[in-house]
Amino acid sequence: MSQHAVEANFDGLVGPTHNYAGLSWGNVASKSNVNAVSNPREAALQGLAKMKRLADRGYVQGVLPPHERPHVPTLRRLGFTGSDAEVLASAARKAPELLAAVSSASAMWTANAATVSPSADTADHRVHFTPANLGAKFHRSIEHVVTGRALKAIFSDEGYFAHHPALPPVAQFGDEGAANHTRLCAGYGDPGVELFVYGRCAFNDAAPAPTRYPARQTLEASRAIARMHGLRDRNRVFAQQNPAAIDAGVFHNDVIAVGNGNTLFYHELAFLDEAAVLADLRARLTGTDLHAVRVSSEDVPLEDAVASYLFNSQLLNAPDGMVLAVPGECREIASVSRYLDALVGDGGPITSVEVFDVKQSMRNGGGPACLRLRVVLTDDERAALNSGVILTDSLYERLTAWVEAHYRDELTQDDLADPMLLDEVHKALDELTGILGLGSIYDFQL
């Protein structure tokens, strides 16, 4: 029986160490801006402005906290000793690449935080969470522990929420979270179809795979998550991403496709077997027809899709149709801008386009969709979560003042070794957990 439910978006607050270290091979934007000077304050305020704009439109908007960075405990595990200041100085001198990695603010992209299955899809009718192991990149592989703590602090009622540990941190079970997962349904409270998109088969060397850039998500990881979440066959589809798209810089499926409700917005080169994917989705989707909005290479070349992050947009339900929330870069590339103008007038499900300025995030390779984790919640589940993380006018004002008080407006790679930066981060995060009512989730607090 269907229950009333909404799709809540939980955005990651950009952390105080937001910087451009170019850590993500396969992410064109990340590599192209390496060593540029970043503005953590502006980045955080841009993210908050995006959240506020959507909250003002009536969408349920939550906040996920940044992580503790630089993460000195990781440096200690790698052999650096002494006081915190001595650890930072030694790492900067002997292994600056490690200091950059443990200072990354990449947890801001909460589309990678976890995979979430709504209670309408799961066997025990609870919302299931599995933090992503993010094993493809060292700087991200250290995130899942604190991500898991934060999710448990927010969704703590075990009567409604089930939490799983991250998958084993090995290449065969590489898992990138909801960036390779989307859900289609007639209504949010109805059983839906969860689309798991993978880049390679870990235990089948003969299967197609990219040759230039790594495929970060494996079929084996996607299948394991579906099992842990108790998804039935009718509630899941596994689809392989087109290896050519990965080699063009489409490191996650959400750079080439986005879905919501009964609408799938995708590029023609998104999937290895487009026809089979659509057929599987249509066969399993109940109570509604699939609206497949296909973008051709003729209209938007793949390189323009990657450069603009057209598909790394948020697709949102609205009273008069779907809203596509795009990054400003979509209006700077002629083919994409022309396509968007034609899209809203073609009589399809997407009826409006709204532009968001998330340039600080985009320069590091993440658009509007990267910044949010979608969680479908019934009314009872909403009442059971920690409401301190739900964005209100008051919380927005408190978080804005918090950012203004604690964030620098300029950060370079050399600044990462500054022990004062670590002190600033600890002070800021200690205050933030109080604001959000999360308790002690960081290593320095435990």
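Second entry:
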Amino acid sequence: MLNSFLILPSALFVLSILYIFHFRLRSVGSEPPLIKGSIPVLGVALSFLFDPGTLLETIRKQHGWIYTLYVGGRRMTVVSDPVIGMKQVWTQGRTFNAQSFFTFLNKQLFGYSDAINYDEQFQDALRTAAVQMLSNKLKMASVVEKLREIFKGLVDEKSGFCETEEVIDLYTFARYNMYSASAIALFGTSFPVQELYQDYITFEDNMMSYIRNIPRILNRSGYKARDRVLKLLGDFFMDDEKVALSSDFVRVLCEQFKKPEFGHTRAEDFAGYFLSIVFASKSNSVPAAFWYIANVVGDPELKVEIERVIAGNYNRETGSFDWDALFEDKVLVSCFKETTRLVSNVTSGRYVTRDTMLKVADPLHPGTDGKESVKEYHLRKGDSVLLLGNLVHWDAEAYPEPMRWIGKRFLEENSGTLVKHADEWRSYVPWGGGGHMCPGRRLALTEAVVQCVYVLWYFDVEPIDTVPEMFIKDKYGAGAARPEKPFHVKFRRRTVPLA
């Protein structure tokens, strides 16, 4: 009875201590403004988990380009300063450590084995090899050629797809076809494309539950799907004959695993890492390719202009396109940049390894020359730093009508009007920055243009629905945004080629 009598006062005492501690939380000296919320320990965790976009945009309007969130007992400093702040974080690798952030992400999301997740020398070797391969045009030429060949075979007159006309959901179409073409181009014809597809999509749709460490019992289907994907990948990379049919890119990475100084040759070692490669090559570029074609066909005048560009780069004598010209066409490239600007929904993270000062532009107090003055903020060792490029991408000060897709926004004649501060701001950052900048950005452009060219060459595409809004909500920072709802279009197979 006495114990029962003491429970309530004890609980009230503990709660009081927590509230006193929470009340006394504040930024000290030159630290960024602290947004601590009203709930002890949790802070702003609930708002950050369920609708971070609204929370972060609201705070940015109040406090500017830097502030610190108190989330679940931890401090996370948000930096979206495109002038100097983000550049410092990207380039000062010793102070702002990316590897620790990726170690967490690799384990939670991709299921990396501990053997490779904590081998930083091996991680550096893999990253160097990947960047070298992706930067080598000659080495990647065969991947691009294979990608074009596979995608063409999925939609041309011999494919059996859409003999006359058909109404489809464009996202489902783009997701499956680009996933298939990209997977075969990278991993070869023996890769279990069909066996992986549905489980991989389930994994992709549930990615935030892995990152947030949602208990397995609350997401059995998601975890089981990831287990099956990892098993299939592990089995594939244990078969040397199948791996031998892969691209040079994949084989070079596999060689790193087998080097004597590393010797990471177990199935689980390959599985986790190559799940991250599948993710990197599919889960951002595939949605981007969808948004690219969706917005093009949703703009009738621009669609006609791009059809002319496609027809103008087709050689009827050889029956082939001038792909180099298409990949460099100013309108096609501008459409891609505008797509990645708008739908890029990627958060880049770093851990602060030592107490440091971060310089951030101060737009509220312009300098004498009309440009922003600079203010220094103290960051604590052990805190996290989140770099949010999408807050810059969606800033009307940088991009008038920021939430509207304007395909020609990035043409040179629109600099200063549709794209502002291009010279002094780093306002286009869909690929991150520093040593961890996404090395696959060129391949993403290739995928988007290849899909657009072949779809408009073989079909007249008529939108039935309006282009959907992006779905962000709890998937804020989780990669290129997905459409909020289906986007139905009518495919009519052309009987006469584009003129």
